[in-house]
């Protein structure tokens, strides 16, 4: 049966699909000049001579390395291969070097004017040639697990048609300054808030089409809660998962502070629930006014070096301003330095939250009253050393058997 299916596939694909293994085993020296789609099965070490079979195959639209058994791991591939191939393949729409340990791309990558899809995941790429910013038709850029990559394109804003950007697992610490120009982005795996000359969190505000999951890292670099407000996370209704992550390097004075000092911080009014009879969210102006009434004048020191001393008030306001849309399903808060969680975390208006993780929030002495989240199924609370006990306030109404009847996984 397998043989019949292969014959059918070969018949349908005809002369328009080119498999490198087929060319290597062909005793008739067939010419594949009409081929449009090419693939090859990666080896642990692919020599340059193996790719000489692509001579004359100049009209390819697709070039993909494959690992059908998922057992090869990473392949060694000399930089001579892309240097040899790319000038010949100017009509490519999809190009992948996934798991091929190339360290650089040739400048000729910029000549692939028709390129829509570029996958460099698990490569050893360190930087991009400047010509990459001329790939105006590029829609998908995958850079997963590029552990040698520390900087994206300086002229990233030129890629105005980019829809999907995957950058998890890289060494990136900030986004390029032009990232806000990518208004058509639908997928962004991670947004790293820059500290000095990098992109600020407000650049997220213009990415209104974001969907799926998003991790916002480096939140300790946000020194003004107005920037967090302008990120406009609340309006991104197609996001399902959000991860808010600060740096895990707290100042030493963090652990030495007297616990009583934390407990007597002003208790902020629940601006999500107080005075609202409908399911309409309070505006950011109402949220800020409520904080001003409870805490007095809050002047944020914008030029403070956040790694030297974390400002708990800033972090509390930033997280409050990052309130997501009510459609959100999964929320993770990591390495947060505020003394309490924002009111939206425990609001019943977030009726779709099924997963909640609070990790390494070292200054919080209480967990939020999340008993009003009706869809919560998975709850993880870890690394919160100052939380000594969980009382009735955890359940809001004091009836855990009713409130958490749907929870399946609860880890502390």
Short descriptors:
alpha/beta, 7-stranded parallel β-sheet, 412 residues
Question: What is the topological layout?
Answer:
Layout: H1 2-13, E1 17-19, H2 20-24, E2 37-41, E3 45-46, E4 62-66, E5 76-77, H3 80-85, E6 94-96, E7 117-119, E8 140-142, E9 164-166, E10 187-188, E11 190-192, E12 212-217, H4 225-230, E13 239-245, H5 253-256, H6 259-263, H7 284-295, H8 312-321, E14 330-334, E15 355-359, E16 378-382, H9 400-403, E17 409-411
Parallel strand pairs: 1-2, 2-4, 3-5, 4-6, 6-7, 7-8, 8-9, 9-10, 11-12, 12-13, 13-14, 14-15, 15-16, 16-17
Q: Describe it for me?
A:
It is a single chain. The chain contains nine helices and 17 strands. It is of the alpha/beta class. The chain is elongated. It starts with a helix and ends with a strand.
Helix count, per DSSP? 9
Describe the strand arrangement of the main beta sheet, using strand numbers.
Answer: 1-2-4-6-7-8-9-10
Task: Tell me the Rg in angstroms.
Answer: 26 Å
Helices and strands, in order, run as HEHEEEEHEEEEEEEHEHHHHEEEHE
Overall, the morphology is elongated
Give the CA-CA distance, first to last residue. Answer: 52 Å
Structural class: alpha/beta
Helix fraction, binned, reads: 10-25%
* Percent of residues in beta strands: 15-25%
Please provide the count of β strands.
17
Look at the structure and give the mean pLDDT: 80
- What is the makeup of the main sheet? 8 strands, parallel
Low confidence ranges:
251-282, 293-307
